[in-house]
Amino acid sequence: MKLINKIEFFIIISSIVLFTLLGCSQLTIDVPEPPEPPELIINDDVIVIDPTITLISDSTELSQGIYHYQYTGTPPDFTTNSVIVGQQGYGYMRNVNNVTQSGDEIILETEQAYLADVIDQCDIQDAITLSFSEKYIDMRVVYLAEGVSINRTSNGIGIISLSDTILYSDDNLTAKITNGSINFEPILNIELKIESISPFVRKFRLSAGGIIDFDCDLQLNCSVPISVGDKIPIVPIGVFEFGPILIGPVPMYVGFSLYAGFDAGLNITGTFETGFDTYASVEFGAKYHYIDKWSTIWEKSAYFNQHPLVWDYSGNIYARAYVSPELNVTLGGFVGPTFGVEPYLEFDGSIENNNWQWELNGGLDGNLEI
Predict the structure, then answer these.
(1) How would DSSP label each residue in 295-315?
(2) pLDDT in tens, 139-148
(3) Rounded (5°) CA angle 50-52-56
(4) Which of 56, 106, 107, 139 sees the fewest Cβ atoms within 10 Å?
(5) Is residue 195 a contact partner of residue 202, using CB atoms and an 8 Å limit?
(6) pLDDT value at position 267?
(7) CATH number of 41-113
(8) How far apart are CA 202 and CA 190, in angstroms?
(9) CA contacts within 13 A on the Cβ side of 307
(10) Are strands 46-48 and 83-86 parallel, antiparallel or unpaired?
């Protein structure tokens, strides 16, 4: 009996020791965390102009690259290697070539600097909503045409009302949006990768995307047969500015404009009216890669719904109407790409002796200037 107890005791102790050893010797597999994006590193020579330094240059001096400051307290240590960055106006980034100081004033002779002069290293990816209803970033209304207003939908989204907006009027022809609206709060996509070795700017992407909800009824009232040239006139119906949006210390401003226009050829007198509504998903813009250089971004899908046609006169008519949202970017005083999208309505038809022949088309065009 004692022998059995000793054996049982030995087995129990051995099991405990073995279990402990196995438990302590289990391999721990470390799952690697995703790599962090490169740290934002600003060039050591960069001087960000603070509120104690006032830019007093006039437009002539600025056009010549002369940045004339007045300061209080101790000024920064400007040298011929300095890169200055400021937010006044639409922002600026300048390489300093010469420094002159007299009393509480400093005059810098400069030339245009670029992002790689300011930022040594970064990998930025951001998406910013340009909203007319929510203050994600500062927004300023620069211009609204008569009759145009900014309203909110039931879910709080900003919508621009175009009803009763006159596109063109003279003694012979009046073109008017009798009922219309556009709802487009684009998401601005920004990607920027800079490395400290050449080529410094590896990639840069700037695009706008989102849903365009556009509704438009166009009325033409013509007293004599007339022809209006292609896309003449172009009427600004709303101009807005967003910013500053900081890319490191560099300010970026985004201009958002809405233009309306039409072209027409009418061999009739009287009134013509038709329209459409569209719901489109778009992304448009530009991207840069140090190998492939610049290329465009243009993706779209849309559907169009025709509105009733009012046309009580014989004759021939061609009409094309559009409202074009357009974005332009200024980065540190450097003018970047301008890009836009253009939903349009196109009508071509004739009536002769009660014989109707007509075609109504809707579409989306895009444009980009770099």
Answers:
(1) EEEEEEEEEEEEPPPEE-S-E
(2) 888 898 887 8
(3) 95
(4) 56
(5) yes
(6) 62
(7) 2.40.30
(8) 14
(9) 20
(10) parallel
The whole-number pLDDT of residue 338 equals 75
Please tell me the distance from the alpha carbon of residue 128 to that of residue 247, in angstroms, as a whole number: 12
With CA atoms as reference, report the closest residue to 248 among 69, 334, 124: 124
Comparing CA positions, the residue from 272, 273, 363 lying closest to residue 322 is: 363
Distance CA 366, CA 288 (A): 18
Residue pLDDT, tens place only, 208-266: 888 888 888 888 777 766 665 544 556 788 888 998 889 889 999 998 888 877 666 66
Domain ranges (residues) in the chain: 41-113, 121-369
The two most distant CA atoms of the chain are separated, in Å, by 125
| 244 upstream amide cis, omega within 30 of 0 | yes
The rounded Cα 275 to chain-centroid distance in angstroms is 28
* Per-residue DSSP letter, 87: -
Half-sphere exposure of 60 (CA within 13 A, CB side): 0
Residue 149 CA to residue 85 CA, distance in Å, equals 36
pTM for this structure?
Answer: 0.74
The helices-and-strands tally (H runs, E runs) of the chain is 3, 24
Q: From the CB of residue 178, how many other CB atoms can be counted at a distance below 10 Å?
A: 14
Measured in degrees and rounded to the nearest 5, phi and psi for residue 293 equal: 65, -150
CB 246 within 8 A of CB 190: no
